[in-house]
Amino acid sequence: MKTLEDLKKVREKALEQMKIREGKFSARVVVAMGTCGIAAGAREVMAAILDELDKRGITDVSVTQSGCKGLCEQEPTVDVIKNDQTVTYGYVDSDKARQIVGQHLVNDNIVGEWVVSS
Hints:
single chain, alpha+beta, 5-stranded mixed beta sheet, 21% strand
């Protein structure tokens, strides 16, 4: 750390990390990781979501996993919980997962053709 600007960057990063620990999230993403979800590619979907959030510098989104949701024929499924609304996407692959981050989480546009329920 050599400049005041460096110190400001360290402070901003620390504040973001505190926000995560306090549970202040703008949205939650839940990837169903039951056996059928994993077999259909849920691990790759989870990795793509985490990677896309990281690439965009988004730190206020909680990403977790759940067990089976009972939607085996539509796996992998991803729930996006934002603004008190839950949207479930089905047949999600890595490319769709990245688009969900960009469209739904960043731009507040639900990708209608992939929605299973909302």
